[in-house]
């Protein structure tokens, strides 16, 4: 059984949702995500929220999901200080596609932002990429990983391929379950491929027992980007990707 603390809309808070058919009711407790990412975890509000959480039972694993922790400088130290045995799971995908997906998402909320090309380069003709733009910075996985390796051994970090999560969800979930040291409960029996959506969907959702696909904002058409810009970004990310593959001992084939 797993309990999931997940980031809510806007990334402002995380709330507790038990997974699985046990009788434990979800609690209304809310932990602001800045408890780990920005401010002190011992801030009174964080402390108060945490004290509202039910204790994790021996048969349960508590899972917290906040994508921004991977790129938050202080997060490794704070998580280590909270529990050095924490297992970390990171979903990674081709950083070029990731940047375009990120931009597509932002554009859907703020249609007035500059073009992708405009934000990507500090100087396009010189091929100078703006690494301070989050959509670019986040995909420099090798850089962020170094901060985590100062606190956690690689054996405590598992990388899920975002690409294989679509083509082989059961295979990726199998590896996650092995990494967590739990029985392989989620298998290919749980998924079907929805051609219209272009994504795997659950045959039966935990809550309603009905088929469930990812929401409308997932798998939406990406903004069209000049192929030359894509090529420049591929070149930019190549050394970071190679370093990342070497560090984790896994080739994600993002070429
Ligand atoms: N389960 C699963 N499998 C494969 N891919 C997935 C999954 N969940 C989310 N995604 C894709 O990840 C991209 C960002 O997703 P999110 O919107 O959930 O991220 S975030 O909450 O905005 O950080 C977004 O990518 P694009 O659709 O290409 O833009 C999601 O489709």
UniProtKB/TrEMBL annotation:
One of its GO terms (molecular function) is [heparan sulfate]-glucosamine 3-sulfotransferase activity. The keyword Calcium does not apply. 3'-phosphoadenylyl sulfate binds at residues 93, 101, 218-222. Keywords: Disulfide bond, Glycoprotein, Transferase. SUPFAM superfamilies: P-loop containing nucleoside triphosphate hydrolases (SSF52540). Residues 82-238 form the Sulfotransferase domain. InterPro entries: NST/OST (IPR037359), P-loop_NTPase (IPR027417), Sulfotransferase_dom (IPR000863). Disulfide bonds join 201-213. It comes from the Eukaryota. It holds the Pfam family Sulfotransfer_1. Its EC number is 2.8.2.-. The keyword Phosphoprotein does not apply. It is an enzyme of class 2 (transferase). Belongs to the sulfotransferase 1 family. This is Sulfotransferase. It comes from Geospiza fortis (Medium ground-finch). The gene is LOC102044079.
């Amino acid at each position: 059984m797993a309990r999931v603390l997940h980031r809510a809309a806007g990334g402002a808070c995380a709330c507790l949702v038990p997974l699985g058919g046990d009788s434990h009711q979800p609690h209304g407790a809310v932990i602001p995500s800045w408890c780990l990412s920005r401010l002190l975890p011992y801030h009174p509000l964080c402390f108060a929220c945490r004290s509202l959480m039910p204790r994790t039972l021996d048969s349960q694993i508590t899972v917290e999901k906040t994508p921004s922790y991977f790129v938050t400088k202080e997060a490794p130290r704070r998580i280590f200080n909270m529990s050095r045995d924490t297992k970390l799971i990171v979903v990674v995908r081709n950083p070029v596609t990731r940047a375009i997906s990120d931009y597509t998402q932002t554009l859907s909320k703020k249609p007035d932002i500059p073009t992708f090309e405009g934000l990507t380069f500090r100087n396009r003709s010189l091929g100078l990429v703006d690494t301070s733009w989050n959509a670019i910075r986040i995909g420099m996985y090798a850089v962020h990983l170094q901060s985590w390796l100062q606190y956690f051994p690689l054996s405590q970090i598992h990388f899920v391929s975002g690409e294989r999560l679509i083509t082989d969800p059961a295979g990726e979930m199998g590896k996650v379950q092995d990494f967590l040291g739990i029985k392989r409960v989620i298998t290919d029996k749980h998924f079907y491929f929805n051609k219209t959506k272009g994504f795997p969907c659950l045959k039966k959702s935990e809550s309603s027992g009905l088929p469930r696909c990812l929401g409308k904002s997932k798998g939406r058409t990406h903004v069209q980007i000049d192929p030359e810009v894509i090529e420049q970004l591929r070149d930019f990310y190549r050394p970071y990707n190679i370093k990342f593959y070497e560090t984790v001992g896994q080739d994600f084939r993002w070429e």
